[in-house]
């Protein structure tokens, strides 16, 4: 049966975005926050950001309060929890929820394992992780961790047929698929750019368009994610993974320069600046901004670029092989196939081709 009524608990950017996506598909949606005004602010922000294809679809979303309105979840076929990444807070919330028979509960977590989350759930068989990517109305990927076959089938159908997204089946491993490999790429990219002495502009140009990767590259993408989130996101992955995992070679939590940017309020695209300030300026080593440079690459073709004995070529070659080896090593652990890793990179990080597709094209497999 299709999902007709849903609830999203947490009206931040992600939660409100998920609610707008559901409402735009024709679902009746309750959006919860600490109070109704907070939920309404989430709806208003989605109207400003284009979360609804047409403004009248916002009428499908009803603002609600977790303090007074939680009984409304009894009407819902699917409840999505999208509060902050704190295991105890999520467990406390789950204990308050009284779902109707046959309803599904899922978490939008990007870091916490299902095996831990499910301990606070009344009906574990009907619990899943549905990890949407931000902004939900634009990003095509939803990672799905649902061990119970019926729950998996129902939510996969809702994600694909009703919401029009791609459901990527994941195993219950840290970072799932897209963030596990995508965040590794970013961490390795930061360290290797420094090792090879590349400016931010040159690093982003090098491992950007020649490889079919968005022009934000590495440092521009970190600005977009938000530098204040580097410690919690990468720290969670570093804590969750074994000591011999590749993340240990390229730690980002506690990075001194990123910490310095955050201390100065330079958190990236949502602040006054980050590695970049607008399109015209780039941060310098003393935390002042200088004019942004337009780098010239030794080659636009990735084969020629990696073959060049230049800082760009050496950086591109080492980062490409480091990323490929990491994905090869962990493929069977985190994904059903190399194609799933490629899908995660394409739909979660905007790569035109995944790492295995690129390697095949470049004769590296």
From TrEMBL:
InterPro entries: 3-OHacyl-CoA_DH_NAD-bd (IPR006176), 3HC_DH_C (IPR006108), 6-PGluconate_DH-like_C_sf (IPR008927), NAD(P)-bd_dom_sf (IPR036291). This is 3-hydroxyacyl-CoA dehydrogenase. The keyword Zinc-finger does not apply. One of its GO terms (biological process) is fatty acid metabolic process. Residues 6-172 form the 3-hydroxyacyl-CoA dehydrogenase NAD binding domain. GO terms for molecular function: NAD+ binding; oxidoreductase activity, acting on the CH-OH group of donors, NAD or NADP as acceptor. It holds the Pfam family 3HCDH. Residues 175-276 form the 3-hydroxyacyl-CoA dehydrogenase C-terminal domain.
């Amino acid at each position: 049966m299709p999902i007709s009524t849903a609830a999203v608990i947490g009206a931040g950017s992600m939660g409100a975005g998920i609610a707008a996506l559901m409402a735009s598909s024709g679902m009746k949606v309750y959006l919860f926050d600490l109070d109704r005004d907070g939920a309404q602010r989430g709806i208003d922000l989605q109207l400003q950001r284009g979360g609804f294809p047409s403004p009248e679809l916002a009428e499908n979303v009803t603002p609600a309060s977790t303090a007074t309105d939680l009984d409304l979840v009894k009407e819902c076929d699917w409840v999505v929890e999208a509060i902050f990444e704190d295991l105890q807070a999520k467990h406390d919330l789950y204990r308050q929820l009284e779902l109707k028979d046959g309803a599904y509960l899922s978490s939008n977590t990007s870091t916490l394992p299902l095996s831990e989350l499910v301990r606070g759930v009344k009906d574990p068989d009907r619990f899943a992780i549905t990890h949407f990517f931000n902004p939900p109305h634009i990003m095509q990927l939803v990672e799905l961790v649902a061990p119970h076959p019926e729950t998996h089938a129902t939510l996969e159908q809702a994600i694909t047929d009703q919401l029009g997204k791609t459901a990527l089946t994941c195993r219950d491993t840290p970072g799932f698929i897209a963030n596990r490999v995508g965040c590794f790429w970013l961490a390795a990219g930061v360290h290797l750019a420094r090792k090879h002495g590349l400016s931010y502009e040159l690093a982003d140009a090098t491992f950007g368009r020649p490889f079919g990767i968005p022009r934000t590259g590495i440092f521009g993408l970190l600005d977009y994610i938000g530098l204040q989130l580097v410690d919690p996101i990468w720290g969670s992955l570093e804590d969750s993974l074994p000591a011999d995992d590749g993340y240990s070679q390229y730690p980002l939590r506690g990075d001194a320069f990123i910490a310095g940017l955050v201390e100065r309020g330079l958190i990236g695209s949502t602040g006054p600046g980050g590695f970049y300030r607008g399109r015209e300026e780039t941060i310098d080593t003393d935390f002042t901004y200088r004019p942004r440079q337009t780098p010239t690459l030794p080659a636009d073709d990735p084969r020629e670029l990696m073959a060049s004995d230049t800082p760009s070529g050496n950086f591109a070659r080492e980062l490409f092989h480091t990323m490929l080896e990491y994905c090869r090593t962990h493929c069977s652990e985190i994904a059903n196939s190399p194609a799933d890793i490629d899908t995660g990179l394409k739909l979660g990080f905007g790569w035109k081709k995944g790492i295995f597709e690129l390697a095949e094209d470049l004769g590296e497999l």
